[in-house]
Amino acid sequence: MLNQIKGLHHVTSMAGDAAENNRFFTHKLGLRRVKKTVNFDAPDVYHLYYADELGTPGSVMTYFPFPNIGKGRPGVGEVGTTVFSVPEGTLPFWEKRFTEQDVSGLARDEQFGEKRLSFAGPDGDGFALVEAKGDSRAPWIKGGVGNDEAIRGFHSASLRLRDGGATEELLKFMGYETVDTSGNIKRLALKDGNGADVIDIETLPGASFAGLGAGSVHHIAFAVENRAKQLEVRKALMETGYQVTPVIDRDYFWAIYFRTPGGVLFEIATNEPGFDRDEDTAHLGEALKLPSQHAHLRDYLENNLQPLGD
């Protein structure tokens, strides 16, 4: 069993309108945009990162907003719900805020003894807030939400699968332990992680497979401290039979990718070097930052990428 993985690093999804996406996460959720860059493989498309003040692993929601992309089709073989952690007693605040800001899909429930508020993103993305006990992570408090209510980072993510058995075994190999079951949902968690420590497996045997589009999660990333730990994980996964990519430089972290038995794309990402490698902490996410291979496109991109309307 691996011991290098420290919880979630980031979740990356697809979107339609970049400005709407930016408004939702910075104005409605009160997160900080910590990086404005472009897709490595499609440089005419933004890659936007939202997180806490520093872009701490375990707090980072990222998006590829493709203009005119079709809507995603929910189903199995994907991340279903991305869940953020908020302090106990704050769901009434968030429900009132979301109602005033016309956030859709609001619903209150309780899972595994935790109070939840589900809501939808601008493209129908599945989200929830959970009142988490004892989450000591520092929030970003300059986004219009005060310290007592602000999002602390990720709480968990759910995987929707036809058969969760093989993915459960993979997660156990990655250091997770099964901690509870409720109906068709099995909860796994890491001990001594970074706070974003929980994965729920929702088994839906007869469901159709998901179709990638706006509102869909593209991949989910797990955190390791550094490149040495990442190489240890890569070697172990490959020895177990997984087809893992070479290490890829993503400017703000190093990444490897592999497809899980249930169809979800997993990434293992390093905590280093971080989002302040090319911007001062006070100005994260303000300027358009380009991967070196796309630097020659700056004039074109600055004139043609959709204004975000900060």
UniProtKB/TrEMBL annotation:
<protein>
    <submittedName>
        <fullName>Dioxygenase</fullName>
    </submittedName>
</protein>
<dbReference type="GO" id="GO:0051213">
    <property type="term" value="F:dioxygenase activity"/>
</dbReference>
<dbReference type="Pfam" id="PF00903">
    <property type="entry name" value="Glyoxalase"/>
</dbReference>
<dbReference type="InterPro" id="IPR052537">
    <property type="entry name" value="Extradiol_RC_dioxygenase"/>
</dbReference>
<keyword id="KW-0560">Oxidoreductase</keyword>
<feature type="domain" description="VOC">
    <location>
        <begin position="153"/>
        <end position="271"/>
    </location>
</feature>
<dbReference type="InterPro" id="IPR037523">
    <property type="entry name" value="VOC_core"/>
</dbReference>
<keyword id="KW-0223">Dioxygenase</keyword>
<dbReference type="InterPro" id="IPR004360">
    <property type="entry name" value="Glyas_Fos-R_dOase_dom"/>
</dbReference>
<feature type="domain" description="Cyclic nucleotide-binding">
    <location>
        <begin position="77"/>
        <end position="137"/>
    </location>
</feature>
<feature type="domain" description="VOC">
    <location>
        <begin position="7"/>
        <end position="132"/>
    </location>
</feature>
<dbReference type="InterPro" id="IPR029068">
    <property type="entry name" value="Glyas_Bleomycin-R_OHBP_Dase"/>
</dbReference>
<dbReference type="InterPro" id="IPR000595">
    <property type="entry name" value="cNMP-bd_dom"/>
</dbReference>
